[in-house]
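User: Please check token order:
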Amino acid sequence: MMVSSLTCMILNVIMSEIRSCGSQTLRDIILKSSDEGRPVTSLVYTFLLPWAAEVAHELHIPSALLWIQPATVLDIYYYYFNGYEDEMKCSSNDPNWSIQLPRLPLLKGQDLPSFLVSSSSKDDKYSFALPTFKEQLDTLDGEENPKVLVNTFDALELEPLKAMEKYNLIGIGPLIPSSFLGGKDSLESSFGGDLFQKSNDDYMKWLNTKPKSSIVYISFGSLLNLSRNQKEEIAKGLIEIKRPFLWVIRDQENIKEVEKEEEKLSCMMELEKQGKIVYHGVHNLKS
């Protein structure tokens, strides 16, 4: 409890310092640029930086929030703070719970952002998240014509982009690192914002040798660490179905080599004959 409380305290101090120092630094940069004849004409900022919009408003500069998640996620947060909070809080206690929000598909508890269903304890290390989301929405509410640039596109989320009439949501996605665009002079040598680099092996060629819709794809994202037992169960399931697969596993680069050896799956040889495993961070591909 003491460690968790200390973590929360440190995070709050950090967020406060970022706001204080960041606001002043941003203000100074904008004013200096104007004095040098290079006025800032618009400001695009992202989540956790609502104070950037306040600085822009103070200096009479139009601003827009860059939302890097789907429009549906932003809509869910909006509805949470506008009449649906109590109903959403019930989701963690009822596996059969579902909710129909305006212009969104039917959602179950597992579809909600984790910040809405995780611990509400003040000792939760992510306790700063919800208040920050609320502040971000309040900042947008205070603008005359709030604009949000969303990492999506109309054909994918047409209704979610229209769900909040008070905000002007503009789909500008999918946003991808410039290294994907084929520029030989790109300064990026990796996938940019992703947590792993390109594999030296061309697994796309392997995929193209397989019949359409025949590959089983498994990935739990860059944030989730599976236990060895969980990986073993997935591996056994893959072997039982006898289908080619592409399995992306987050590599724990911070653990010792001895521990890595112990983490190896017992059926690795069988797996390597059947499909491919991509390890984030190791920059290699096993087949």
Summary: The chain is about 45% helix and 15% strand. Residues 188-198, 253-262, 282-287 have pLDDT under 50 and may be disordered. The two ends are 45 Å apart (CA to CA).
